[in-house]
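Email to the structure team, subject: Suppressor APC domain containing 2 model.

Hi all, the expression group asked for a predicted structure before they design truncation constructs. Nothing fancy, just the tokens so they can compare against earlier work. One-line instruction: predict Suppressor APC domain containing 2, return tokens.
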Amino acid sequence: MAELEQEKEVLLQGLQMMARGRDWYQQQLQRVQERQRRLGQSRASTDFGAEGSPRPLGRLLPKVQEVARFLGELLAAACAGTAVPSSSLGPPGPTLAPTSPPAPDWQQQTILMLKEQNRLLTQEVTDKSERITQLEQEKSALIKQLFEARALSQQDTGPLDSTFI
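Reply from the structure team: attached below.
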């Protein structure tokens, strides 16, 4: 009976964490969608995303991917009625049954996730390159204006005025 209570408690805790995790994932998705919307509206802006960070998830992204992989393995094992692969649980320990090779579903999910991440990073690099090009053009225009203003100033005041560039 105590074993069933413990199992129930673990499942309730897991369910609570899943609910909190779901809320967090939805918040992150909203931030990304908002960032995409802002970038779509104004490619020329200097907007770097929410909270001033170029990548809101930043160093958390590998952990998020790891959690998704672990959850995928857990669900695959639960659906197949086998134990979770020991490689997912950390140090090797005794298993209830011999484990089969990892399920192709979670591998496919990982591949799709990596492809999407690659697409987003490629888009980000493209956006940054376009922004750099725009800034270089603005810089050239400003330098040209500076030289024109300097030339006009020298005509008015004579050769004694020298602006150091």
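The chain has three domains: 1-40, 57-89, 105-155. Residues 47-52, 91-100 have pLDDT under 50 and may be disordered. Ping us if the truncation boundaries need rechecking.
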